[in-house]
Amino acid sequence: MAILGSIVKSAIELKHALTTDLLNPYARQKAQLLQLIKAAAPTSFGLYYGFRNIAEEEDPVAAFQKQVPIFDYERMHNMWWQRQQKQPDITWPGQPAYFALSSGTTGKESKRIPVTREMLESIRSVGLAQAESLARFDLPPELFEKEILMLGSSAKLQQHPNGHLEGEISGINTNNIPNWFGGFYRPGLEIASIDNWDERVGAIAEAAPQWDIGALAGIPSWVQLMLKAIIERHQLSSIHDIWPGLSVYATGGVAFEPYRKSLEKLFSRPLIYLDTYLASEGFFAYNARPGTMNMQLAVDHGIFYEFIPFDERGFDETGALLDSPQVFTLREVEPGQEYALLISTPAGAWRYLIGDCITFTDLEALEIRITGRTKYFLNVVGSQLSEEKLNAAVRHLEQQAGLSINEFAVAAVEDEAGQFAHQWVLGTDAGQQELSAILDRFLKDSNKNYAVARSKALQEVRVQALPNDTLYHWLESRKKKGGQVKMPRVMKAEDMQDLLDFARP
């Protein structure tokens, strides 16, 4: 019997039983905001926006919203974070020891997001809350004695001339794994620090028989490639041949469903899937109960949230933020409405438009799902297609054509005569069929704006089916391979042309 595992499982169950559910999540959110603005009151940002006065207001949330503007990355970086790299006490007390480089999906220079000691503590706190939620799942005691393989970007951080260390957030987190967790973490810091993605995966595949993995964590596209490499290296029929106790997979970063079928071909028995919402700016939500992939918003771990309706109340017809959008707090949101997320954090992000859209699926349980990115909004000729609508169209196409599509991208392209078309690329190893008509019909039926656009300026829908490996090789050619990197769903026309040129034999 797994004695240690039984003890650990019992401790988790006891901690979960003693944890009181949040009876008033808005009150907790208000408390989080007060803690944040009091801590940052002496900083340049806090002095400029009068944080001490805000904290003394009868309604500090309303005062905060009135006094502090909304920031996107460019505005925050240019006004504040650029100085934060060189000077202390700019948007948060002290000077960050780390800056997270956003993974990005284009050729642009990476963003630098401050990561403070308090932010790392917030991430750890949410991670522990997710671990405690495992008490709700029917997990064998043996699982709590096994190792966890976490696949991220390289843990080798770079020293910036300004003195801080920088790398992607998964690498920063790896360098700050608590000592007590080090014995369970795989592949270990040495392998995780290998820069080259293929070499790192090769080292993981070589060492895999030495490990007893019970849980996986990572973005599904890259986890899938890693598992294939291990299976091929050791001539296995499934990954369970080498890790028979593998029971849990914590996914995140992208929608999981497009990868479910292809991943399950690599397993010989079902896994428990847990979704997570971990970004460069913080850990915001996690799957807290069985039977759903929806995630519980982390309202009590140092982060304050606001929500902008992703419709005419918050954004114009091109998807750009209005000058004076409506902004809601947790007590004002409605289920089923799509919102762009604003965060204020202990890393000195204030009313920061992170770029993700979410919707609440259960207000009582504080459960959300990510619906897409604000920038993944295709509306060049009035089609008004959000990422959620694009995802739904691809899932419909899979069902109708009997395909498995892991990746896709679409762009609005213009020919020499000024005629517009939607150019799709679908990542599938199946042969190309009459796919454009299926996509076109579904979007016309489900989106009246798209139907109107197709009757006027949007002349054509084109589809190019490409092997997934071709898409990943294209990302690699743009130095965007592995770890946290994601395939963009909506591309600029020039990026789409670059991909199509790359794919030509």
Q: Strand tally, please?
A: 20
Query: How many H/I helical runs?
Result: 18
CA radius of gyration is 23 Å
In whole angstroms, the N-to-C terminal distance is 57 Å
Give the percentage of residues in beta strands: 15-25%
> Given the C-alpha coordinates, what overall shape results?
globular
Helix content: 25-40%
CATH class of the domain at 119-286: Alpha Beta
Taking all residues together, what is the mean pLDDT? 87
The CATH topology of the domain at 119-286 is Rossmann fold
Largest sheet: 11 strands, mixed
Record the strand order, biggest sheet. 6-3-7-8-9-10-11-15-14-13-12
CATH architecture term of the domain at 119-286: 3-Layer(aba) Sandwich
Q: pLDDT below 50 for ≥5 consecutive residues: which ranges?
A: 1-12, 104-108
Structural class by secondary-structure content: alpha/beta
Give a verbal description of the structure:
It is a single chain. The protein is an alpha/beta fold and 505 residues long. Among the domains are: 119-286, 3-Layer(aba) Sandwich (Rossmann fold), CATH 3.40.50; 377-503, GMP Synthetase, Chain A, domain 3, CATH 3.30.300. It is built from 18 helices and 20 strands. It has an eleven-stranded mixed sheet with strand order 6-3-7-8-9-10-11-15-14-13-12. A four-stranded mixed sheet has the order 2-1-5-4. Strands 18-19-20 form a three-stranded mixed sheet, with helices on both faces. A hairpin with a 2-residue loop joins strand 9 (272-279) and strand 10 (282-286). The longest helix is centred in the first third of the chain and has 17 residues, at 117-133. It starts with a helix and ends with a helix. Pfam families: GH3, GH3_C, GH3_M. Residues 299-363 form the GH3 middle domain. Residues 389-493 form the GH3 C-terminal domain.
